[in-house]
Amino acid sequence: xxxxxxxxxxxxxVVTRLVAERGDALTRYAAFVSGRxxxxxxxxxxxxxxxxxxxxNGYTISSxxxxxxRAILNTFLDTGRRTSRWxxxxxxxxxPEQSPSKDADVQARIDLMGELAxxxxxxxxxxxxxxxxxxxxxxxALTLExxxxxxxxYLSDGLGKLRVSLGDxxxxxxxxx
Length: 177
What we know:
Layout: H1 11-34, H2 37-54, H3 61-89, H4 102-110, H5 112-117, H6 121-131, H7 137-144, H8 148-166
Helix pairs in contact: 1-2, 1-3, 2-3, 6-8, 7-8
């Protein structure tokens, strides 16, 4: 009998094994890409439907996982494009009058996921691909269909925003005289 990794498998078997063996990792990836744990399961589900709606038999768990990861990223970026208009008018939303606690301010400063959520979808995608998937700039450019210069700019802008939001409260007072 051939090993499961080398024999052609039915797509139903592949998706079942993929979810059982790599489902948690895919959900973590989706949460990291989207910045929201609440959206991660839906993002994975959408990616699985998109991936296995097109795939045919003969894929391995690892090759199917690569397709699903790409579908997670593409689905997130597509959603980001649709919601970019909302970001421009979001400030008009009514906010209940509450004073946030001092603990909430401290927690927000150290919460990386919260800070990633404040970045643009492209900045977040570039940072996740660079520091979570450990891709090089050229690989990120190919993945996102951008120029390497644009990827470098998104990485620089995203890291700059994270430095400001997660940085020290001294405002750079230690630099100089």
